[in-house]
C-alpha cells in the first residue's frame, strides 16, 4: 500500500470517528448548495417564469434533526436583482444575522455572489423557507424545512407514515408587475390568485373537479409526469398518517379538507397543541400545522383533498389532489364532489377553529406579567397619494442599511432614531374609515431590553373606504409568542383579565380578525433585530410591519458578508475591519 492511500485511509477512519462523535453529541453539520434562479415552468399547466432553487420549484425540502447545524451556501443566479432567504419559524438563537431578511438582518446577496447561512435548528417541527426581498416569495422562492426529533425520541402522537404539503398561490402577472402596481397612483391591486398550488402544482382552469363534472375536457387528463399533475397521496387502509401543512401564500387564507375524513390537529408552527378533531381547517399565510389522518374509510374508493380560499371574496378555483387507497388505482375518480370550502366570510367559523388551538400540557407557560404593553393599530392609509398600510399611522419603508449592523455599530443616521408610537389615539373609531386617512412613512425601531416581557395588542380597524375589515396574519421573527387571546372591537382596560395564561399556545404567526384584537406575549430573550409583520406579501410591501430590536449589544460577531452595503459597507471599506 502506498503512503498516499494509507494517508487517505487514515483520513477516512478519522472522519468516521469524528462523525460518530458528533452524532453522539446530537448535532450534525449539514451542507447544502442553493442556486437561486428564474426558471420557466408550468406549475398550473400554463407556462410562467418562477423562482426556483437548483432547478426545482418549489425549492428542495430540507430535512434535519434537532441540534443540527445547517450550512446553506446560497448563490444568487438571478441576472439583475439581489436575493435573500428567510428560514420561517427558526428562531436563530445566537445567529440573528442568518435570519435572511433584506435590509433587516443582512444586505441582499448580489447576482453572482454566494452567502453562507449557518444556523442551528433547535426545535422539532414543520417549517418552511422563503425569499424575503421585494416580492420574491410571490415569485415562487420557497420550500419546506422539516426538523425531526433526535433519534430515539418519539413524538407525543403515533403515526405510520407522513406527507408534506406546502401550499401557495400563483398569479399570471409577474411579481415585478405586481410590485409596480402596488407602488403606483392609483394603486393597481394584484387581485385574487389565478391558481392555488399544492407542492407547487395546480391546474388552471382545469380543476380536477371540472374533470369530475365533465370528464371530456382534454387538458384535464394527466399522465402523471406533467409539472402540473397533482401529487397524489397514496395511503393504505387503517393506518395513521401525519400530514404536514405549511402555507407560504402571498395573499390567500386557505381552508383544507379531505372528503369523509377527520383531521386531528397536533402541531402548530413547530409547537405541540392539545389534539383536536375537525372536518376542515383554516391555514393562514405563515402558519404551519401537522394533522393526523386515520385511513378508516371505504378502501375501494378514492377521496378529494381540497384547499379553497377563505377570508376574502374568492375568485380562485379550489386546489385539489386525491387521497388514493392503494388497493385501487389512483385514476379512479372519487364518487362524490370535493368538499365545499366554508363560506369565505363566515368569520365566526374561522374564530371557532382558531380558538380550538391551545397548548399541549408541558408547553412552557407565559410569564404571569409583562413589563410593557404596546398597541399596534392596523389601518389602510394614504401617504402622498399612495395607498399604504400603516401601524399606529406609520407605514414601514425599509432603510438602505440593514438594521442589525447599523444598530450594533451605532450608525445613527441609518434610520429614524425616534422610536415609532407605542399606541394610538384613544378615541380612534375602529368601526369606520379613518377621518384623516393620511399616514407617514417611517423606519424607526421598537427597542426592547434583554429579557423584557412584552405584550403586543394587535388592533384591527375598518378599511380605508367603505365598510369592511380584513384579516391579517402577523408573523414574528426570532421568537415564538404566546397567543393570550382574541377579542371583538377595541381592546379596553379589563380585557387583560380574559387572557389565557395557562394554555396559551406558542406560535410564530397569529391572525387578527375583522374589527377585533389579538393579544400576544413574548420574552425579548433573543438579541437581534426582528421583523414583525403581516405575512400577506403585498401588505408587507405596502408597509404593514414593524421592527423590533433586542439587546443588540449582546449580538456576537456579525459576519462581514451581511454588512457590505449602505453605511455598514462604507464602514467596512473605511476601516477595512471592525
Ligand atoms: Cu415568513 Cu418575515 O416571513
Ligand atoms: Cu395584512
Per-chain topology:
Layout: H1 3-25, E1 29-41, E2 48-53, E3 62-65, E4 69-76, E5 85-88, E6 114-120, E7 125-131, E8 142-148, E9 161-170, H2 175-182, E10 195-198, H3 208-213, E11 233-235, E12 240-247, E13 253-258, E14 263-268, E15 271-278, E16 280-283, E17 288-294, E18 302-310, E19 319-325, H4 347-355, E20 372-383, E21 386-391, E22 394-396, H5 403-408, E23 440-442, E24 446-448, E25 453-459, E26 472-476, E27 481-488, E28 506-507, E29 509-512, E30 516-523, E31 528-534, H6 537-541, E32 545-550, H7 566-575
Parallel strand pairs: 1-4, 3-8, 9-12, 11-19, 20-25, 22-23, 24-32
Antiparallel strand pairs: 1-2, 4-6, 5-7, 7-8, 9-10, 12-17, 13-16, 13-18, 14-15, 14-17, 18-19, 20-21, 25-30, 26-29, 26-31, 27-28, 27-30, 31-32
Bound molecules: CU-O-CU linkage (C2O) and copper (II) ion (CU).
